[in-house]
Design brief:
mainly alpha; 74% helix
Length: 325
């Protein structure tokens, strides 16, 4: 049916889709800044101005950390795509930022998967989805690995009120979940993003070890960079905390954020709430915690989406002769 639609009509609707993505992302950012119940935008701005901590050196350093964070994300995507086709760093840059913009206001980052596929031929799109899934799963694995270590140290150092009854119940649910997944895998019913576990595993094994190792390395570099950026913002605001102690709290926070069921559009709210709880153990005031969380969101999500909007608007629909059915 798609192939029967006139090319001009497709082009018109495609422009509407691009505008919808950019406008939707812009409204999402505006709404989260202006209508944030936890941190009033005017209070946030006033706090930044009165704090006077943002010298030119600090701003440049924070932007450099953001650039390196996304530099490794782009390298990671270029490396993954290499398993099926060669793309330049510039092309990986465009795809990563444009898909990030598309994912900003979509549940579970569905927009990221959909946006990346349109850059490739129809026969490559399923593999592109799987490659994107592999990249995200490795990044999540790094978060969980550091998070488990951080959480163990966290509950050892601080008086955390843990209900062991709830913990046992949670572990029971987790065990049931593992058994259910195992049953689903054995019967080929379990799926992630529409793909069976067996198909995902087969595809993962088809990708070279070199690409997997680079993927892990880039994911690790990203984690170390944005966690250090989180720590550095606390130093900027005059918080007296060592890097090791900060990393324990940061890793624990990202672990809890990762395992709490939520959709991506509420990500900034969930992170703020979890950060308030975790960093409350070292008696950092709420306005500082929420300001740091908001700035991390602005630097690593909002700023890249601004550049991504440009590439979304400038993406051209393939010519009629090259459109895939």
């Amino acid at each position: 049916m798609i192939s029967r639609i006139p090319y001009k009509t497709k082009q018109f609707f495609f422009v509407l889709i691009k505008l919808s993505i950019v406008v939707g992302a812009a409204y999402f950012i505006y709404d989260k800044l202006v209508n944030n119940k936890e941190l009033d935008f005017l209070v946030f701005v006033d706090f930044l101005v009165k704090n006077g901590a943002f010298s030119l050196k600090n701003i440049i350093f924070l932007l450099v950390l953001t650039i390196f964070n996304w530099f490794f994300e782009i390298l990671k995507w270029q490396n993954l795509v290499k398993s099926i086709t060669q793309i330049s760093f510039l092309e990986a840059f465009k795809q990563s930022l444009a898909s990030h913009t598309a994912s900003l206001f979509t549940p579970n980052r569905i927009g990221d998967y959909a946006a990346k596929t349109i850059y490739f031929r129809s026969d490559q799109r399923k593999k592109i989805v799987l490659l994107n899934l592999i990249g995200n799963m490795v990044q999540m694995s790094i978060t969980l690995l550091f998070g488990i270590v951080g959480f163990y140290i966290f509950i050892s150092q601080y008086e955390v009120d843990i209900s062991y009854y709830k913990l046992v119940r949670l572990l029971t649910y987790a065990l049931i979940g593992v058994v259910a997944i195992g049953f689903g895998v054995s019967h080929k019913r379990f799926s992630i993003k529409g793909f069976s576990f067996l198909k995902i595993w087969t595809f993962v094994r088809s990708v070279s070890a070199k690409i997997h190792l680079k993927n892990i390395a880039y994911s690790l570099f990203r984690y170390l960079i944005f966690s250090f950026q989180f720590y550095y913002l606390y130093i900027v605001f005059g918080v007296d905390i060592t890097y090791i102690n900060a990393m324990v709290l940061i890793c624990t926070m990202y672990l809890l954020v990762s395992i709490i069921p939520t959709i991506f559009i509420f990500d900034v709210i969930v992170k703020g709430s979890v950060a308030l709880y975790i960093f409350g153990f070292v008696e950092i005031n709420n306005i500082t915690i929420l300001s740091v969380t908001t700035l991390m969101w602005l630097l690593n999500f909002v700023l890249p989406s601004v550049f991504g909007s440009y590439y979304v608007l400038n993406f051209n629909l393939p010519t009629a002769s090259n459109i895939d059915d």
